[in-house]
């Protein structure tokens, strides 16, 4: 019964999120982590731009956020591959508040979304 209630709560929450209006920001703030030395770096990227975060190439297709709450949860579509290689390590949506939900699987590096850049420039 407890599992049923948990599943029902998740479905209701998912339905509410699906009906929420979102806007695309012009870009996103991403954070990279080198797990070996603990170094982090924040990178600002524009939609349609690709850049390097440590030994990874990262392309940002889009960053979306709730229209009613620009500082709310960001969703970014990222494609990530190792520098000089063609095989994608990650291709999909990352959620800022739940990066482990759909995460990059790499032994040394990690990349996640911090927030979208909003038109108001915050």
Q: Care to describe what's here?
A:
It is a single chain. The protein is mostly beta strands and 122 residues long. It is 15% helix and 48% strand. It has one domain (22-117). It is built from 1 helix and 8 strands; from the N terminus they run H-E-E-E-E-E-E-E-E. The strands form 2 sheets. Strands 1, 4, 5, 6 and 7 form a 5-stranded antiparallel β-sheet that branches. It has a 3-stranded antiparallel β-sheet with strand order 3-2-8, with no helix packed on it. A hairpin with an 8-residue loop joins strand 5 (56-66) and strand 6 (75-82). It is globular and about 40 Å long. The chain starts with a helix and ends in a 5-residue tail after the last strand. Residues 2-16 have low confidence and may be disordered.
Key descriptive features of the protein:
122 residues; mainly beta; five-stranded antiparallel beta sheet; three-stranded antiparallel beta sheet; 8 strands; 15% helix; globular
């Amino acid at each position: 019964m407890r599992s049923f209630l948990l599943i029902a709560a998740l479905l209701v929450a998912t339905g509410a999120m699906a009906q929420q209006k979102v806007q695309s920001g012009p870009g996103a703030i991403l954070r990279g982590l080198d797990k070996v030395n603990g170094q982090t770096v924040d990178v600002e990227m524009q939609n349609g731009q690709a850049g390097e975060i440590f030994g990874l190439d990262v392309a940002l297709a889009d960053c979306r956020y709730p229209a009613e709450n620009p500082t709310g949860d960001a969703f970014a579509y990222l494609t990530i591959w190792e520098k000089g290689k063609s095989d994608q390590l990650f291709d999909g949506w990352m959620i800022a508040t739940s990066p482990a939900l759909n995460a990059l699987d790499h032994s040394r590096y990690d990349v996640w979304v911090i927030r979208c850049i909003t038109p108001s420039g915050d």
